[in-house]
Amino acid sequence: MRQNPTLKKIAEKLSLSISTVSRALKDHPDISAETKKKVNELAELIEYDPNPYAVNLRTHNSKEFAVVVPSLSNFFYHSFISSIEEDARIYGYSIIIYRSSNDPKIELEILKNCRHKRVSGIFIAITSETKEIEPFLKLDTQGIPVIFFDKVPAYESCNKICVNDAHAATLAALEILKKDVKRVFGIFGDKNMSITQVRLPKFSEVLLNANPDINLETVHATSSDEAECMTLKALSNYKKNDFVVFCMSDETLAGAMKAIQRKGLKTPEDIGIIAISDGMIPKLFYPEITYAETSGFKLGKLAFSRMMKCIAGSSFAQTIIDQSILVKGGSL
Amino acid sequence: MRQNPTLKKIAEKLSLSISTVSRALKDHPDISAETKKKVNELAELIEYDPNPYAVNLRTHNSKEFAVVVPSLSNFFYHSFISSIEEDARIYGYSIIIYRSSNDPKIELEILKNCRHKRVSGIFIAITSETKEIEPFLKLDTQGIPVIFFDKVPAYESCNKICVNDAHAATLAALEILKKDVKRVFGIFGDKNMSITQVRLPKFSEVLLNANPDINLETVHATSSDEAECMTLKALSNYKKNDFVVFCMSDETLAGAMKAIQRKGLKTPEDIGIIAISDGMIPKLFYPEITYAETSGFKLGKLAFSRMMKCIAGSSFAQTIIDQSILVKGGSL
DNA sequence: CTGAAAGCGCTTACAG
DNA sequence: CTGAAAGCGCTTACAG
Fold first, then answer.
1. Which positions fall inside the HTH lacI-type domain (chains A, B) (predicted)?
2. Whose CA is nearest the C1' atom of nucleotide C2?
């Protein structure tokens, strides 16, 4: 393994001290223009780059951000990661990916790992089972900013970036109300998930307050397959054009669409459908599915910019809510 | 920022030397059982964990793998990353994600970054424009194993893990031949992509060798939207049940399905469709789309195990080909 | 069985 | 404007 160029090597070749070379490279005002030029030229030539481990040992700045998510097979998190990666490149940070598998024990281990690696900051969507948030707060006090996103804890005083679940649910409900609909079938995710706990009551509230006569049936599905089964069951007493399906997530949407296709129904003629989604799955169908957007990409941008402020020393905690927008397809 | 526990702290509390503590912690045979016990207990108590930067500075082992892909909005790469992440956890490695945006310049920069970070190894799917592979080989000689996957260079002597494109194309062609079909519309990706250059000729060869009377039309689409347009055009002189669409990728499949839905056609009654895919998109439709599987997950497992062998000292290069299997849906 | 010492490659107060 | 020196936290030959 060829040795990488070091400060020492440059210093020797130029008959300077290591300190001077180090300073020249960081454009320290003490160093003469001439020396700087010499040093930089040689550094360029031999492709010098500081050993990040040595730098970190001194400065405690790893230039690495961790992104922790419950699952990697999720379109929303992908856009988030993609978005963060984009910004990180620009600022010279790397992104380390961790998956908690929705297991608080693994999550805790990951946190420990992040601490030992002295990452510069953590972006995390917590598991639906996470109860204790002390470990997260502890990291914050140790100088590792923690930005919660999407799945965030209830605790007030921490940095949270979330989609406006209530707003998204409201947009979807209002869109449904524009149609003359008697029956709404709402498919929601796991009861334990914080997003379910916001989206379900808000959706019901908006819908039923505006029109108490609507026959609203809600179910909880923990997988696409389950959502498909439940939709099929609901469709057993189907009446043409009298029925709207609402899906609170891509996962439930995938299941519902499978059931609708299985029954040979067409949207929007035979049945209406609307979802809350990041947008990938809605665009696979024709007509495209109308959805209230929760954009992982936008959330990533917001989270990253909040992170940079924390790194720069902003100490107060802040909750940032990304408003949702309605993207019209032709499915309703 | 609270100070992390160090060897020094343990040594002081126990009135031992740092060397002894270090050895005790790694179960060195020289150290007495009694001392080991004392040290380990205290280490446990104060949650000692070695500073990875200090360790790396000495040992040059970062325990980090880099994964470099052209794009992060790609289901295949997600499964690959997910698969690698799973194994990495077990072995105590972290995964750093890089996206080249299919730009060889960015790719080169990433490579440089990996070298400076002294990552333990690199998994990379190169860009379709990558011409020079010397930089990759150089890393290998510097002791950083490089495992190419999916998009691999033509150069012989390097570690490559790929799906068997020829095999997948063959499986799809054979499946089409089972039906009595006159007309096949094949949608392929960018001409520059290595996978296109294998899948297209093989598919044509198998199909036409078996049945020269088949009217095979092939097109290249660089996006879903383009694939949709091209499919719509092909469908303009559509005759019921006389037509099979073959899509070489998820991207083209998404476009083709959009066109088929737009025309109000049903699979397989009105039109047959078959693809090469990782499996996510085919399963969104009913009937599910028949596809020759190229599994990012399986590829990840193979790549990781090859990586561990390289780390362990295996120096010869090896090309591993993952065979494809046909997953039957009902779309053909 | 244990310890003193050198060194990994850098940064930065201190001195001149 | 430049340099000698200490130190970040660890590992490991060397000595006893």
1. 5-59
2. B20
Indicate the length of chain A as a whole number. Answer: 332
Nearest-Å Rg of the Cα atoms of chain A is: 26
How many other CB atoms sit within 10 Å of the CB of residue A296? 25
Q: Which helix (H) or strand (E) covers residue B150, if one does?
A: none
With b for 16 or more beta-carbon neighbours within 10 A and e for fewer, the A132-143 pattern comes to ebeebbebbeee
Residues B159 and B169 in one domain: no
Comparison of pLDDT for B143 and B93, the residue scoring more:
B93
Helix or strand (DSSP H, E) at B154: none
Candidates A3, A25, A53: best to mutate against B (most CBs of B within 10 A) is A53
B187, B246 Cβ separation under 8 angstroms? yes
pLDDT tens digit string along B224-243?
A: 999 999 999 999 888 777 88
B286 and B213 assigned to the same domain? yes
A residues 189-208 closer than 8 Å to B (CB): none
Domain residues for B46? 7-50
> How does the average pLDDT of chain A come out, rounded?
89
Map tokens 């990951």 to a residue. A110
Same structural domain, B170 and B274: yes
Q: Does the predicted TM-score (pTM) go above 0.90?
A: no
> What's phi and psi for B188, nearest 5 deg?
-115, 165
Q: Which amino acid is at A325?
A: I
Q: What CATH number has the domain bearing residue A279?
A: 3.40.50.2300
Average pLDDT over residues A8-28: 82
| Any A CB within 8 A of B254 CB | yes
Euclidean distance between CA atoms B163 and B321, whole angstroms: 6
User: Do A116 and A147 reside in the same domain of the chain?
Assistant: yes
Whether residues B185 and B278 share a domain: the answer is yes
Q: How far apart are CA A169 and CA B7, in angstroms?
A: 53
Instruction: Please tell me the total count of domains within chain A.
Output: 3
Q: What tens digit of pLDDT does each residue of B296-324 get?
A: 999 999 999 999 998 887 777 889 999 99
Q: Does a structural domain hold residue B328? A: no
Letter for the amino acid at B174? L
Separation in Å: D8 C1' and A83 CA: 34
CA-CA distance, A66 to A81, in Å (whole number)? 10
Residue A239 lies in a domain: yes
At residue A1, the pLDDT reads: 39
B281 and chain A in contact, CB less than 8 A:
yes
**Contact flag B49-A116 (C-beta cutoff 8 Å):** yes
Residue A237 DSSP one-character state: G
Residues sharing a CB contact under 8 Å with residue A139, sequence separation 6 or more, in sequence order? A111, A114, A115, A122, A146
**Residue count (chain B):** 332
Q: Give the whole-number percent of chain B exceeding pLDDT 90.
A: 55
Classify the C-alpha dihedral B59-B63-B67-B68 as positive or negative. Answer: negative
Same domain, B214 and B273: yes
- Burial B148-169, CB ≥16 within 10 A → b, else e: bbbbbbeeeebbbbbbbbbbbb
Q: What is the pLDDT of residues A223-276, one digit of tens each?
A: 999 999 999 999 988 877 788 999 999 999 999 999 999 999 999 999 999 999
Residues A152 and A177 in one domain: no
Q: What is the mean pLDDT of residues A159-178?
A: 95
Residues B156 and B303 in one domain: yes
Q: A66 phi and psi, to 5 degrees?
A: -100, 140
Task: Give domain status of residue B55, yes or no.
Answer: no
Taking the mean position of all CA atoms in its chain, how far away is CA A253?
Answer: 19
Residue A17 CB lies within 7 Å of the nucleic strand D: yes
In a domain, B32, yes or no: yes
Residue B3: the pLDDT is 61
Q: Mean pLDDT lowest for which of A30-44, A222-236, B62-76?
A: A30-44
Rounded Cα distance between B270 and B292, Å, is: 21
